[in-house]
Amino acid sequence: MITRFAPSPTGPLHLGHAYSALLAHDMALERGGEFLLRIEDIDKSRARPEWEAQIYDDLKWLGLWWPSPVIRQSDHLDVYRNKLRWLWNHGYAFSCDCSRRDIQDAMSAPQEGMAPATGPDGLIYPGTCRANTNQSGTVNMPEDTAIRLLMDTVARKHGSELTGGNVLSFHETGQGPNGETGLIEFSTQEAIDTIGDIVLARRDMGTSYHLSVVLDDAAQGITHVVRGQDLFEATKIHVILQRVLKLPTPVYHHHSLIRDNAGKRLAKRDDARAISKFREEGATPEDIRAMVGF
Ligand code: GLU
C-alpha cells in the first residue's frame, strides 16, 4: 500500500489537514506500506515557500516521516504539458478563452433566478469554444489559452475505446458526503451532463489540479488516495482522465471533514485552527491526534 498527503502550500495546515495526513500515514504504516508527501504548488499566485517550509515543520512535529526527495508539482510542469499536448493531438481537447462571465452569460437559466448548473469543476461549460480542436489533426495547441477536455467526444463517441464501456467506477473504502461507499459507478452520460468539459490547463498555470493529481498519483504508484470528502465528486473526473490516459485507478478513501464549532468546514484562511497555533499554545502531537478523533 502506498498512500500520500498532497497539500497545497497556500496557507497554514489546520486540524483537517492533520487528520488527513495522520490517516494516510497510519493506514500505510499499519499495512507495512509507504506514506509519501507531495507538494501541490501549481498555483504560483498563491503558493509560498514559507508555507511549504511550515508544512514540513508541522508534519515532522506531528511525528510523520516520509521519504525524500519530496515531489513538488512546480518542478514537473513539462510532464503535465506533454500529456496535455497528447490529449490535444488526439482531438480530445479544445482551447477556450471564455471568461467566467462569458460562461455565465452563455448559460441559459431555464427559470428566472435559478442558479446555473455546477459540477465538481465549477460551472458546467456551455460549449461555446468546442469547435477549437485539433480534430483535423493539423492544428497546434495554442499556448496562451485555457485547454478543456472534450467530454462528449471522450465519454460518448469513443466510449468503449477510451473509457472501457459506458459505466465507469472506482472503489471507495471511506465515504462520500452522502454515505457512498464500496463500488461507486457512474455513466458516461452522467459525466457529460453533470461534469462537462473540465479545464485541463488554466491559462495562467499551464495545467490544472485534475490533470496534475492524476499524473502524479500514477507516477508515484499511489495505491490508496486518502483525502477529504470535498473531493469525492472530483474523483469522477480523475477516473475519466485515468481511462483516457491509460493509467491505473487507485482505491479512494474519502474521509469526513473536520468542522469548526459552528459546523463550518475548516478553510486555509481559518488560522484559528492552524496546527502551528495549537503548538504555540502548548498542545502536544497527542493532543492534536485526540482533537481529530484518533
Ligand atoms: N492539493 C489538494 C489540497 O490541498 C489536495 C489534493 C488531493 O488530495 O487530491 O486541497
TrEMBL record:
One of its GO terms (molecular function) is glutamate-tRNA ligase activity. GO terms for biological process: glutamyl-tRNA aminoacylation. It comes from the Bacteria. It is an enzyme of class 6 (ligase). InterPro entries: aa-tRNA-synth_I_CS (IPR001412), Glu/Gln-tRNA-synth (IPR000924), Glu/Gln-tRNA-synth_Ib_cat-dom (IPR020058), GluQ/Sye (IPR049940), Rossmann-like_a/b/a_fold (IPR014729). Belongs to the class-I aminoacyl-tRNA synthetase family. Keywords: Aminoacyl-tRNA synthetase, ATP-binding, Ligase, Metal-binding, Nucleotide-binding, Protein biosynthesis, Zinc. Its EC number is 6.1.1.17. This is Glutamate--tRNA ligase. Residues 3-289 form the Glutamyl/glutaminyl-tRNA synthetase class Ib catalytic domain. GO terms for cellular component: cytosol. Pfam families: tRNA-synt_1c.
